[in-house]
């Protein structure tokens, strides 16, 4: 049986080899034709009615700009889904941040998001801001009691403000809001800096119910102002609301952060979660606990699962672990957020058992076999 499987695999590899040249050139073409944000906002989405069954479809960066500039009240109870990776600047030049990139449109407090956002496994890349405004982030903030953000990657981003509140996702959490982040990944190509309150996910706001499930943040985060300890991989710093129990609770399940989750004011619980540094004491020290700290270098590569044994739903990469739910959607076997020959080679090594790095179950059927190789080839071909 095993021999048959191996023979089938080798046959399939040989069969597919002839199509690889086409794959590589298609990938290079796609890079040259990036749909980069033109600085405007669209007037309509690509489709959908905003219901749970028919979410508004966001296919271009201009449609994403439409959403973040929409009044928060108009997003209440509405559903949104990405149908493509979003390029807010042209990141094809590694030095893109020094080539006069475009500041992301200035979202305002009236536009605090109140709906559900499904990244659908796609990445937002090239998010950039350098200036003095408050809320330097993809979304100014969110408010409401049932905000959901899922299946989203943010990579290749730089957010820098001399004002307060900066984060890859949301500047602020509005008073008494509750939100769930699920399968969201902030890559180590993201940097965030503000005077006070800077983070991978939520810069600051009011201590409220935030649930992080299967989320990771490896952003480079720092603050430069008077409250310079209010930063974190997930949340920068939260003040207290008047609620009790879950209304003011932060919950982390199956999460990884490269630094402390936050250094300031939260009522957290952690399950199967890890961070790269211990926290430091502050004025609200009695309210804090931290997830298990792991040496940052040990979070990367083949050692990662030995150091973080309780994690599920991730797979090993040469760098930080990647989230399976996002990789399955994108076909990104080696977790580097691009599709190319390297993914094919990584899957082949995984199936042959010569490597532990990468995602085997590409088609998401909970079985690791030749069908994953076929599925990957179909993605490239299609
Ligand atoms: Ca890849
Ligand atoms: Ca499979």
Structure, briefly:
Helix content is 20%, strand content 27%. The protein is an alpha/beta fold and 382 residues long.
The class by helix and strand makeup works out as alpha/beta
**Strand content of the residues, in percent?**
25-35%
Number of helices: 7
Helix content: 10-25%
Separation of termini? Answer: 31 Å
What's the mean pLDDT score? Answer: 86
Question: Would you spell out the secondary-structure blueprint of this structure?
Answer:
Blueprint: H1 2-32, E1 56-58, H2 61-68, H3 72-75, E2 79-82, E3 86-87, E4 116-118, E5 123-125, E6 128-131, E7 139-142, E8 147-155, E9 157-161, E10 166-167, E11 170-173, E12 178-186, E13 190-194, E14 198-199, E15 202-207, E16 209-213, E17 216-217, E18 220-223, E19 231-232, E20 235-240, E21 249-253, E22 256-257, E23 267-271, E24 274-275, E25 292-293, H4 304-307, E26 314-315, E27 322-323, H5 324-330, H6 341-352, H7 370-381
Helix pairs in contact: 1-7, 6-7
The structure holds calcium ion (2 copies).
């Amino acid at each position: 049986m095993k021999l048959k499987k191996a023979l089938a695999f080798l046959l399939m590899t040989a069969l597919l080899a002839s199509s690889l040249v086409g794959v590589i050139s298609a990938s290079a073409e796609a890079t040259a034709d990036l749909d980069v944000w033109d600085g405007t906002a669209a007037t309509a989405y690509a489709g959908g009615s905003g219901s749970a069954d028919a979410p508004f479809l966001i296919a271009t960066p201009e449609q994403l700009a439409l959403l973040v500039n929409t009044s928060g009240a108009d997003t209440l109870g509405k559903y949104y889904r990405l149908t493509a990776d979003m390029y807010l600047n042209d990141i094809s030049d590694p030095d893109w941040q020094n080539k006069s990139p475009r500041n992301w449109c200035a979202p305002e407090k009236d536009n605090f998001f109140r709906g559900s956002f499904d990244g659908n496994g796609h990445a937002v890349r090239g998010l950039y801001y350098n200036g003095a405004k408050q809320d330097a982030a993809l979304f100014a903030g969110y408010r409401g009691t049932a905000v959901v953000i899922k299946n989203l990657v943010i990579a290749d981003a730089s957010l820098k403000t001399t004002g307060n509140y900066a984060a890859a996702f949301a500047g602020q959490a509005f008073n008494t809001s509750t939100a769930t982040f699920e399968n969201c990944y902030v890559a180590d190509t993201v940097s965030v800096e503000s005077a006070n309150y800077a983070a991978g996910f939520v810069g600051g706001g009011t201590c409220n119910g935030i649930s992080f499930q299967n989320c990771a943040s490896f952003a480079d985060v720092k603050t430069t102002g008077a409250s310079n300890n209010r930063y974190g991989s997930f949340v920068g710093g939260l003040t207290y609301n008047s609620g009790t129990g879950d209304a003011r609770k932060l919950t982390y399940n199956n999460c990884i952060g490269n630094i402390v989750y936050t250094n300031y004011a939260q009522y957290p619980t952690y399950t199967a979660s890890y961070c790269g540094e211990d926290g430091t004491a502050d004025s609200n020290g009695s309210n804090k606990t931290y997830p298990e700290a792991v040496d940052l270098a040990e979070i990367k590569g083949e050692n990662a699962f030995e150091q973080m044994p309780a994690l599920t739903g991730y797979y090993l990469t040469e760098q930080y672990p990647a989230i399976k739910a996002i990789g399955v959607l994108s076909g990104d076997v080696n977790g580097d957020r691009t599709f190319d020959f390297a993914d094919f080679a990584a899957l082949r090594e995984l199936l042959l058992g010569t490597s532990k790095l990468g995602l085997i179950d590409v088609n998401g059927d909970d079985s690791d076999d030749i069908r994953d190789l076929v599925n990957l080839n179909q993605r490239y071909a299609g």
